[in-house]
């Protein structure tokens, strides 16, 4: 077999990158094609429907459902303020009054004489989408959003938490094998994207949050430490919406795993540049990888590197994703066409990999590796 396909991460130093920035609902695009934008620039706006609150007026006033419309002080589509009277009924010859007040400010959407309920909708919530990257608007999608283009470096991780943030890249560990602990962090790191080595400790995570660090990129993470910081178990089917106060990207996996030397070197070379990172991760259909993008506008992307690798070939850079070589990087030396019997007794197609810092190639099942796309 000449080649085989396997899912992979992208690590590319100089590529043409495009990001679709779209609204959740149709709205207004506020930039034009060809405009230069910064990460914080708003490119599109819209309004989300306000919160809905259902008030059972009939029950609150002790009247029949059919009497609700005639008891309304406010009518459909009227605007109301929180605490304002919306319905009123009289009893005992008009001496006693029963009132219902609006639980929120907004608009009366409907009044029902069948259910006796009134539906109120709060004011619409403004939503603004920013450019996320420093680059150029290359496409405007009317009422929906834009496409932002830039050239630069892309590094995808295995796992992440937290949403989109930007900050200056700052490497704080001497080597990719060093632990990022709290003693390496200071007030100077506020708003920065911190690069660590093989592990970030629980205390370092907590201190980074206190210091208002924008993000951390590190090789490994102890899942117990993550649970300790979050206060609960995290389902990794999809992440990115955690209200942790920081964005975290893990490049290698769970545990104490040295960041790939090439990845660390690439980040080190770009220290001081502004980076955009996003911890959103999805492992089901429509896989989403956490990412770090370092825009370098004006630099011509390489033309001899394909935009997307089509398969695994001899010479491909891969990462092992199962024990006993979990997290190790290596180069494909040979693809075995026929299934090979494993130590477990089962048969599987395997590849010969020359792992970094190993003297001899090792045999690993194809299902236990992933391509690191874009490595040179």
Structure description:
The chain is mainly β and 376 residues long. Among the domains are: 52-121, OB fold (Dihydrolipoamide Acetyltransferase, E2P) (Beta Barrel), CATH 2.40.50; 158-289, Glucose Oxidase, domain 1 (3-Layer(bba) Sandwich), CATH 3.50.30; 317-373, Roll (SH3 type barrels), CATH 2.30.30. Helix content is 9%, strand content 41%. The protein contains five helices and 29 strands. The strands form six sheets. The protein has a 16-stranded mixed sheet that branches. Strands 5-10-9-6 form a four-stranded antiparallel sheet. The two termini are 23 Å apart.
Secondary-structure content class: mainly beta
Cα end-to-end separation: 23 Å
- Please give the count of helices: 5
- Described by its quaternary structure, the protein is single chain
Shape: elongated
If classified by CATH, what would the architecture of the domain at 158-289 be? 3-Layer(bba) Sandwich
> What is the residue-mean pLDDT, rounded to a whole number?
87
Helical residue percent? under 10%
Q: Uncertain spans, ≥5 residues at pLDDT below 50?
A: 1-6, 304-309
What CATH calls the topology of the domain at 158-289 is: Glucose Oxidase, domain 1
Largest sheet: 16 strands, mixed
Number of strands: 29
CATH class of the domain at 158-289: Alpha Beta
Percentage of β-strand residues? 35-45%
**Radius of gyration, Cα only, in angstroms?**
28 Å
